[in-house]
Amino acid sequence: RDPGAVGPTGLFEKDITLDVALRLKALLEQRDGYRILLTRTGDESVSLRDRVEFANRHGADLFVSIHVNALHQDDLSVVETYYFGAEATDEATLAIAERENRGAGYSLADFTDMVQRLGSRMKLEESKRLAESIQTSLYRNMRTVNADLRSWGVRKAPFVVLLGVETPSVLAEVACISNPTDEQRLSDPAHRTRLAAALEEGIVRYLDQRAPARAVPSPLQPEADLP
User: Fold this and answer.
1) How many angstroms separate the Cα of 197 from the Cα of each of 3, 121, 138, 171, 175?
2) pTM above threshold 0.90
3) Total structural domains within the chain
């Protein structure tokens, strides 16, 4: 199975994202009214199409895809959060989306149809608000343990998985596994709990501000099990 990004000493993105998702699930389910569904619970491959269908079948109220970044400049430590945009924020963002969309299982006609129905099928403004809440929380909380952390903010990109889900949906890059210091932090369970807690704060703040308030069955997507 594809490990996703791999750190300098061999730490796998797929293992980190799954662990963070499981910790986030445990934190959120301590709250009344929260039910969290994961697109995978172990070392398994789940296609992008299956992830989209999973979220829609369960009537998710929101969808969070968890990643760790791999950058050519290995001294960078950044966090960034994406929501769907037919036009990417910049060329680098488009390249990331193209890499993640490989093997999506959707034809060009499928993709065109999803874009045409975007207005009725996805609440882009809600996705943007969710991304802003998560990004703010990630940067503020993780900056306390990483003085070199940069925020690359909220960005738009044509991620197929975010387009197909019929609910506010985001993709969060929570660390840079290509950075040796970041990789070392990610290997620490306590640090992964801090990441999960930062995501929890961003999700809960978004839901508290959204009206009407309601319980949240939320597929969290630990990524990197596919190209």
Assistant:
1) 24, 30, 9, 17, 14
2) no
3) 1
